[in-house]
Design brief:
The chain is of the alpha+beta class. It folds into two domains: 155 residues, Aminopeptidase (3-Layer(aba) Sandwich), CATH 3.40.630; 131 residues, 2-Layer Sandwich (Alpha-Beta Plaits). 34% of the residues lie in helices and 20% in strands. The protein has eight helices and 14 strands. The strands form five sheets. Strands 4, 5, 7, 9 and 10 form a five-stranded antiparallel sheet that branches. Helix 3 crosses helix 4. It is elongated, with a radius of gyration of 24 Å. The model has no long low-confidence stretch (mean pLDDT 95).
Length: 295
């Protein structure tokens, strides 16, 4: 992202230094916290940042990322009853312990079934994006090797498509499907009648999509093409701040330089890509706003 931000700043600085007078305003805005729910983008919108269209400088190798999946992380907790793991015990109905890790196993099996279902289900297909997914990423349970765990929690990384937004623009329909299927998976176990699964949604960062024929998409494709690239309209498998601005009225795409080894200690951006991206952004600004003169 730092490389992309540098491209945006350089493009505007060059236009100013060259005395290019645009026929409209260009708003430059940087935000924080894209990786953990996008609070910065929401704050920017709440403070009135609006435009007719927007460019988010996510690394895209000068392709135009016009769509992204939403994120709906969910935690699922199975409760148990503690006891000594190496002693004989009565049935749980008579006060014996219940292993919370074992109680979570049907949940994990149902998660796997959902993943397989979503991969082929028609409503999970999109021309630019992979199907929605539900991936167990964190699990926590137990306190000691000889103690039966009284609680076990799994965190699920859930992604979903723009077509799954409800009338209010949220992922609640996806959450309801997951909740219903997980509760059904343990419905035959009488333990859960008195100790139901605890299912909690952590947040909902919603997906978004800008039509491929939108002017901002076509201008970005044209600018990259004029610089010798062969850009495509693509989708972002994960989520980006562009979705927040699109959701609240500013159609925004991701358009940035390349990136190698993303999120690694040797993450890098090529200099040639930075230069071309800055040039492309300058072209987009001139073509979108129009040029009224030069000082």
């Amino acid at each position: 992202m730092k490389g992309g931000i540098a491209c945006l700043v350089t493009a505007l600085e060059v236009l100013r230094e060259e005395g290019v007078r645009l026929g409209g305003d260009v708003v430059f805005c940087t935000v924080t916290d894209e990786e953990m729910g996008g609070a910065g983008g929401f704050a920017a919108v709440e403070h009135g940042v609006r435009a007719d269209a927007g460019i988010c400088a996510e690394p895209s190798a000068l392709n135009v990322e016009a769509a992204c999946r939403g994120g709906l992380p969910i935690t699922v907790t199975a409760l148990g009853r503690t006891g000594h793991a190496e002693l004989a015990h009565p049935d749980w109905r008579e006060g014996g312990p219940v292993n919370a890790i074992e109680k979570l196993l049907p949940v994990l099996l149902e998660v796997q079934r959902m993943r397989e279902d979503w991969r082929t289900r028609p409503d999970h297909q999109h021309p630019l994006l992979p199907p929605g997914d539900i991936v167990p990423t964190v699990i926590a349970g137990g306190t000691w090797v000889v103690t039966i765990p009284h609680e076990c929690t799994v965190t699920l990384d859930v992604t979903y498509l723009p077509g799954h937004l409800d009338a209010e623009g949220t992922g609640r329909a996806v959450e309801r499907e997951i909740t219903g299927r997980l509760r059904a998976a343990v419905a035959d176990d009488p333990w859960f009648d008195e100790h139901p699964l605890r299912i909690e949604s952590i947040q909902d960062v919603v997906p978004a999509e800008v039509p491929a024929d939108h002017e901002i998409v076509q201008l970005a494709l044209g600018a990259a093409g004029d610089l010798g690239h062969d850009p495509r309209v693509t989708g972002l498998d994960t989520w980006h701040d562009a979705a927040t601005f699109t959701r609240f009225g500013t159609p925004t795409v991701s358009f940035g330089p390349d990136c190698e080894n993303s999120h690694a200690v040797d993450e890098s951006v090529s200099i040639d890509s930075l230069v071309d991206c800055a040039a492309a952004v300058a072209l987009i600004a001139m073509r979108w706003c129009g040029v009224t003169g030069q000082t």
